[in-house]
């Protein structure tokens, strides 16, 4: 139960980080940097009466049916939760801040900050075995069958979304968005790699039994205990070897 609560908290945090980067940096400049959100922004330009968040919900529903069939129930349920958080928080921000102005007029700065923030949130979600919907799901399906990094899979899927955005919002916006999906691909793969980095720890202590009990009972990690002899002191020692996350 505790592990599931922790997973839900990380998924919520990751999705809210994604929403923050998307709404405050990406949306004001109509940067359709891929994903269902990019398609939703293009559709919202043609039908402004319907909020972007609603378009996201509709399209995600279709993709989640596919996700349940191909990627499994657990992935589908967690992804639906993240999609709901993203769509509802985006819609809420649109209602509360209908005339939001960009924090800066520099489109490139907004693109870089928006991509880095959004990709960091997305990486947290993907690393927990879920997605925020849209092309994330397509990328996960491609990875399942072809063992390609998620970021590269998303680059392929998002390329076509950017073409739609270029048609809707113009060449300049589309070219910035094209740059954005390349940055997004790199940041997501690097962030996931960083989250999955493990540290091999070698611990020498007279209280090795207490330390080993803590490793096993409190942080739920495995360990191996070696009997060693000090090279200088020639005293017998015990060494605990364990691998933990950063």
Short summary:
Helix content is 69%, strand content 9%. It has 246 residues and is mainly alpha-helical.
Protein traits:
3 strands, 246 residues, three-stranded antiparallel β-sheet, elongated, 69% helix
Reconstruct the topology from this structure.
Layout: H1 2-26, H2 35-46, H3 52-71, H4 73-96, H5 107-127, H6 135-146, H7 150-169, H8 171-195, E1 198-204, H9 208-217, E2 224-229, E3 236-245
Antiparallel strand pairs: 1-3, 2-3
Helix pairs in contact: 1-4, 1-5, 2-3, 2-7, 3-4, 3-6, 5-8, 6-7, 7-8
How would you describe this structure to a colleague?
With 246 residues, the protein is mainly alpha-helical. It is built from 9 helices and 3 strands. The chain has helices spanning 2-26, 35-46, 52-71, 73-96, 107-127, 135-146, 150-169, 171-195, 208-217, and strands at residues 198-204, 224-229, 236-245. The chain has a 3-stranded antiparallel sheet with strand order 1-3-2, covered by helices on one side. α2 packs parallel to α7 (150-169). The mean pLDDT is 83.
Q: Give the rounded overall mean pLDDT.
A: 83
If helices are DSSP runs of H or I spanning 4 or more residues, what is the number of helices? 9
Strand content: 5-15%
- Counting helices, strands and paired strands, the structural category is mainly alpha
**Number of strand segments:** 3
The biggest sheet amounts to: 3 strands, antiparallel
Multimer state = single chain
Distance between the termini: 23 Å
Q: Which stretches are poorly predicted, pLDDT < 50 over at least 5 residues?
A: none
Task: Please write the string of helix (H) and strand (E) elements.
Answer: HHHHHHHHEHEE
**Rg, please?**
22 Å
Q: Numbering strands along the chain, what is their spatial order in the largest sheet?
A: 1-3-2
| Helix content range | 55-70%
* Basic shape: elongated
């Amino acid at each position: 139960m505790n592990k599931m609560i922790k997973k839900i908290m990380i998924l919520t945090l990751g999705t809210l980080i994604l929403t923050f980067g998307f709404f405050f940096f990406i949306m004001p400049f109509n940067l359709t940097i891929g994903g269902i959100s990019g398609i939703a922004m293009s559709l919202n330009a043609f039908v402004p009466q319907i909020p972007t968040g609603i378009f996201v919900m509709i399209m995600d529903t279709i993709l989640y049916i596919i996700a349940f069939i191909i990627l499994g129930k657990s992935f589908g349920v967690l992804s639906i939760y993240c999609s709901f958080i993203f769509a509802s928080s985006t819609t809420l921000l649109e209602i509360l801040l209908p005339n939001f102005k960009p924090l800066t007029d520099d489109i490139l700065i907004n693109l870089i900050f928006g991509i880095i923030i959004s990709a960091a949130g997305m990486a947290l979600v993907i690393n927990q075995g879920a997605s925020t919907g849209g092309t994330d799901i397509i990328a996960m399906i491609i990875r399942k069958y072809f063992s390609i990094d998620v970021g590269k899979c998303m680059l392929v899927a998002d390329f076509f979304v950017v073409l739609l955005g270029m048609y809707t919002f113009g060449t300049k916006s589309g070219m910035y968005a094209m740059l954005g999906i390349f940055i997004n691909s790199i940041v997501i793969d690097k962030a996931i790699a960083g989250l999955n980095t493990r540290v091999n720890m070698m611990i020498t202590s007279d209280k090795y039994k207490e330390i080993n009990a803590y490793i096993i009972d409190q942080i739920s990690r495995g360990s191996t205990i070696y009997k060693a002899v000090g090279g200088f002191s020639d005293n017998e020692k015990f060494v605990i070897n364990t691998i933990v996350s950063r």
